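Render this sequence as a predicted structure.
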Amino acid sequence: MENIFFDLTQLKHCGKNVIIGKTVRIRYPELVEIGDNVIIDDFTYISTQLKLHSNVHISAGCKIIGGKSSFVEMKEFSTLAPNVVLSAGCDDYISGIATPVVHIKYKGNPKIGKIVLNKHCIVGAGSVVLPDVIFEEGACLGALSLAKVDLEEYGLYAGIPSKFIKKRNKEEILRLEKKFINESR
């Protein structure tokens, strides 16, 4: 299936067994690295430096934004549910004018940073993650939530702003990872 917005050969790196939907839009494909066994569903928009490790899934309608200077990384077995926004670059909306990030001198107080989802992290449907947030291994953000600060290892968070709810079952998640890897050989 051909993508209608860019040629896959423009990507910085593209691994094996990668599925990218026909309507995925990647503004700067030369800044995007994709590992093996990755799926990026249709209607996803990417406009930042992005590194996807192996076994990552980005569901339909996600936005991974922030401009050329920001950075997002998703490590193994991390997932975005539908309509998630990872905003590694944003503005405080207090001063400045509404211009594209390329006209940064007219922005009020832009924040250009990074977002990192470590192994086994999940971002629930319709959630937003702001710049400079790190999801420690196994951290999970529930649907319709806002992450403004780091999420601790194997914690489940939800709300606006997100708050800790409870711990996830780390042992079971790692057992399933091992089973998946063994069955994939």
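Summary. The longest strand covers residues 63-74. DSSP finds one helix and 20 strands in the chain.
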